[in-house]
């Protein structure tokens, strides 16, 4: 055996006990395994998604202008989050496949290189954001009178960028090794800390000054810093899944390329969502500040409602990635059938829930009839397509997990630019603000049917090719 191979074998033996995998992806009933992987993420993501909802709840107490200002920030906040999700998708996909091949040394090197890449990209995003606050939000349709409020919030929030992106990437490492429980617990604790800090910093108490809308951003920043430190400790000390980044540019470049092969299309796919949100905010702004505030309320409620779909899409990629071997192809088929049933049935339940409770929940955030009316219109029309929206998420995650990210990017781009935008322009002309929301629902339904069919065909070709190569 060559010296390099012997060294790799020794390192794999040493770190095999450190890179702990709490759930096996290649054995056991598929439905049960997916549930075991997803449940911790449901609670963790529910807690994380509550960040924005809780911030919105307390900021709404400051008045409609503050609520509208925060609503304008939603697409930008989601843009940064989407970058984090894209990098996480690349990390999870590559690492899951390396772990499936028992390449533990390569997995550890990948972890250090990826964290450095995340830090560099987050600094670039933070600098760009801080330099463009006023022109960007004017472009999104914000009234000049709201810019000071938006600036108060985003000047602090942009400092948070590295602590959004890097923990998301480390969470992807945990998912790739099946350690979802700690990731979920960490998200839950962070959300509880945020709930405690929000009223304290927004309204002030004792020696703590009243910061109003900026206080919400400071609460998020403090919480996210703590989350980043805890994530780094767990990945480094408990999993043993971290080395210093490579000092050789050639090696580092290869590592970054493997991540960005999945990560860039995944970032593009996820960034399309806030792009659609930005377009919608600009179109809704034509109907007044109350309409923007109402749309903002709906946008804070929706991610919390869709939490199970986010969790499912978060685990399907690593699951498919580790089941690439020929003997596991039947498991890949089973997971697609399971996800289809889950998305459609759970989506139907969410539709009924929003029809029954949408108005009640919207009233928690505002007592303005105009604001509530817009929020209720959204939560009546769009939930019809929630099951299909969840299926689109799962399809995109599946393509990424299989190491073929281009279809996920194509699906996302076509959903927004090919379907949503023309339908929204037509819908607004014919039906006003409700037409925008109907366009969202129709786009989700059409793209879910097409995307799922594409995924089935692609997986069949991959499996047939692998079987023929045996």
Automatic annotation (TrEMBL):
It is a multi-pass membrane protein. The chain crosses the membrane at residues 34-54, 66-89, 110-133, 153-173, 185-207, 213-235, 256-284, 304-321, 342-365, 371-395, 402-423, 435-455. GO terms for molecular function: antiporter activity; xenobiotic transmembrane transporter activity. It comes from the Bacteria. Keywords: Cell membrane, Membrane, Transmembrane, Transmembrane helix, Transport. It is found in: Cell inner membrane. GO terms for cellular component: plasma membrane. This is MATE family efflux transporter. It comes from Pseudomaricurvus hydrocarbonicus.
């Amino acid at each position: 055996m060559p010296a390099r191979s012997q060294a790799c074998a020794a390192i794999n033996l040493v770190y095999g006990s450190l890179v702990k995998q709490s759930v096996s992806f290649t054995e056991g009933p598929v439905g049960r395994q997916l549930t075991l992987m997803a449940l911790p993420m449901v609670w963790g993501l529910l807690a994380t998604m509550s960040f924005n909802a809780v911030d919105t709840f307390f900021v709404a107490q400051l008045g409609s202008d503050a609520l509208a200002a925060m609503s304008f920030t939603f697409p930008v906040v989601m843009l940064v989050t989407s970058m984090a999700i894209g990098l996480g998708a690349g990390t999870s996909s590559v690492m899951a496949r390396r772990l499936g091949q028992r390449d533990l040394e390569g997995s550890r090197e990948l972890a250090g290189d990826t964290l450095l890449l995340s830090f560099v990209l987050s600094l670039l995003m933070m600098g760009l954001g801080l330099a463009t606050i006023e022109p960007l939000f004017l472009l999104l349709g914000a009234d000049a009178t709201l810019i000071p409020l938006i600036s108060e919030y985003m000047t602090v929030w942009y400092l948070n960028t590295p602590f959004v992106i890097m923990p998301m990437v480390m969470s992807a490492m945990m998912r790739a090794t099946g350690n979802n429980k700690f990731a979920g617990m960490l998200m839950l604790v962070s959300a509880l800390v945020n709930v405690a800090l929000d009223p304290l910093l927004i309204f002030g108490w004792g020696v703590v000054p009243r910061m109003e809308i900026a206080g919400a951003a400071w609460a998020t920043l403090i919480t996210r810093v703590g989350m980043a430190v805890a994530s780094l400790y767990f990945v480094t000390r408990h999993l043993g899944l971290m080395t210093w980044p490579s000092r050789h540019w050639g090696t580092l470049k290869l590592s970054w390329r493997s991540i960005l092969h999945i990560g860039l299309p995944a970032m593009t796919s996820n960034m399309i969502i806030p792009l659609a949100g930005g377009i919608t905010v600009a179109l809704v702004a034509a109907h007044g500040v109350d309409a923007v505030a109402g749309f903002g309320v709906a946008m804070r409620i929706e991610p919390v409602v869709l939490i199970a779909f986010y969790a499912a899409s978060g685990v399907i990629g690593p699951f498919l990635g580790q089941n690439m071997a020929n003997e596991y192809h039947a498991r890949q088929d089973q997971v697609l059938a399971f996800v289809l049933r889950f998305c459609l049935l759970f989506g139907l339940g969410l539709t009924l829930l929003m029809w029954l409770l949408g108005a009640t929940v919207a009233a928690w955030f505002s007592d303005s009839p105009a604001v509530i009316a817009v929020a209720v219109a959204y939560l009546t029309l769009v939930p019809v397509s929630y099951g299909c929206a969840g299926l689109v998420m799962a399809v995109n995650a599946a393509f990424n997990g299989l190491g073929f990210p281009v279809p996920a990017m194509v699906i996302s781009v076509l959903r927004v630019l090919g379907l949503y935008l023309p339908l929204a322009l037509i819908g607004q002309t014919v039906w006003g603000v409700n037409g925008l929301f109907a366009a969202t629902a129709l786009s989700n339904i059409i793209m879910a049917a097409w995307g799922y069919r594409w995924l089935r065909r692609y997986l069949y070709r991959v499996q047939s090719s692998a079987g023929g190569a045996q």
